[in-house]
Specification:
- The protein has two helices and eleven strands, in the order H-E-E-E-E-E-E-E-E-E-H-E-E.
- The protein is of the alpha+beta class.
- The protein has one domain.
- The longest helix is centred in the first third of the chain and has 28 residues.
Length: about 170
């Protein structure tokens, strides 16, 4: 009986360690990208203070038809391009995983057609970068600073387009 408890404890420890190592590998081996954020601040009673973040790349506007056969079930890839300051913006979207390009993987949430301007607006949701947890008491202060002065999120992208937030950068 005692051996069974030790084996179960060892298995849970290895699983927890594996999850931790996997998440840290995103930060260690991913490509650094900076995105402009648009914050708002909720509070989760069980998890504490956090910022819920939107990015400029959440809402993408393209002339004509950027993608054909809209599918809300398949992952979508947003191709990014860094400007001279290193801030990334969306330049294209596709259902096919890009080769040799900087991209982030997301899920199509909503599509709207503006017939007057002949543009299509895509709303894309990204996993793992929509919340950033902060120390207790700092969320409101950070939110106000980001809303007043703007800011950026430093994220890391893996080769598969998965993303993790490393830090929030406030404009001063």
């Amino acid at each position: 009986m005692k051996k069974t408890v030790y084996v179960i404890a060892a298995i849970w420890t290895l699983i927890t360690l594996g999850i931790f190592v996997c998440n840290e590998m995103h930060l260690a081996k991913g490509e650094e990208v900076i995105l402009k954020v648009i914050p708002y601040d909720p509070r989760d009673f069980l998890r504490g203070n956090y910022l819920t973040l939107n990015y400029e790349i959440n809402d993408i506007e393209f002339p004509g038809t950027a993608i054909q056969n809209i599918n809300y079930e398949k992952p979508i890839y947003v191709i990014l391009k860094k400007n001279a300051k290193g801030v990334a913006s969306a330049v294209d979207i596709t259902y096919l995983k890009p080769e040799n390009k900087l991209f982030i993987k997301g899920q199509l949430a909503h599509v709207r057609l503006d017939r007057d301007k002949e543009k299509i607006f895509y709303r894309i949701k990204y996993n793992n970068i929509d919340r950033f947890y902060v120390k207790e008491g700092n969320a409101k202060k950070l939110e106000k600073s980001l809303q007043k002065n703007g800011g950026y999120a430093k994220i890391y992208l893996t080769r598969n387009g998965n993303a993790r937030i490393k830090e929030i950068i406030e404009n001063k």
